[in-house]
Specification:
By secondary structure, the protein is α/β, with parallel strands linked by helices. It is built from six helices and ten strands. Strand 9 and strand 10 form a beta hairpin. The protein is globular. Bound molecules: adenosine-5'-triphosphate. Adenosine-5'-triphosphate binds next to helix 1.
């Protein structure tokens, strides 16, 4: 059974077609990456899948039809556009606060994610003093907190150095081996080639499987 199914999904705003007749299915256990140039529609595809924008056509998650305003049918970890972080708190506190909203996250998982993303475990450095790359890593760690069955990352390599990108790819592959499905939007071709096991090209609102 497919985890995500889009049938004839389109999005128009004031007569402008932003997504045009998108048809795709993604199964559990895939690392599906949407590649495309700036403004091609990658983020809109992710938002459509999450029910964050109204579209025509049909979207099914776990065989359940997605309706605007309904709760998303499965637990998903999400980083779309910029990381949503609380500036006045440390990275660790940000994860602790998010953990309160999730079932069964313990302190060990928070420390493991901070270590994985080379973020401070101790100390008082607030997020407002973080570098761009540190913020990005915290945003990704937030999406990975709570072992969601689906993790959605929009441009995860933004602001990351080459070594951090390699660590991220290895970690995505590790989580994927444990069963996590990933949906990723990226214009970083090298990253896409290394990380994906399904590739889609997004071009002017059309989605093509590569
Ligand atoms: N709410 C909206 N109203 C009108 N146009 C929109 C809206 N949201 C997005 N767009 C337009 O839709 C197109 C696709 O946007 P989208 O954010 O999906 O691009 P993207 O492929 O993610 O680009 P980037 O790589 O720059 O993040 C862009 O031309 C954008 O200006």
């Amino acid at each position: 059974m497919s985890l995500i199914e889009l049938t004839h999904v389109s999005k128009k705003v004031k007569g402008q077609v932003l997504l045009e007749d998108v048809n795709l299915t993604i199964s559990s256990g895939e690392i599906a990456v949407f590649e495309g140039i700036n403004g091609s529609g990658k983020t809109l595809v992710l938002k459509a899948i999450l029910g964050l924008i109204r579209t025509s056509g049909q979207i099914k998650i776990n065989d359940q039809q997605l309706k605007a305003g309904d709760a998303f049918p499965i637990q998903a970890g999400i980083m779309i556009e910029n990381p949503s972080v609380l500036e006045e708190f440390t990275g660790k506190r940000n994860l602790e606060l998010l953990a309160k909203l999730l079932p069964s996250v313990d302190n060990a998982q928070i420390e493991q994610l901070l270590t994985q993303f080379e973020l401070p475990i101790d100390g008082h450095k607030r997020v407002k003093k973080f570098s761009l790359g540190m913020r990005q890593k915290l945003g990704i760690a937030q999406a990975m907190l709570g072992n969601s069955e689906l993790i959605i990352l929009d441009e995860p390599t933004n602001a990351l150095d080459a070594e951090s990108i390699d660590r991220l790819i290895a970690y995505i592959h590790e989580l994927n081996k444990q069963g996590t499905t990933f949906l990723i939007a990226s214009h970083d071709r090298e990253f896409v080639t290394k990380v994906a096991n399904r590739q889609f090209l997004v071009k002017a609102g059309h989605v093509y499987e590569n």
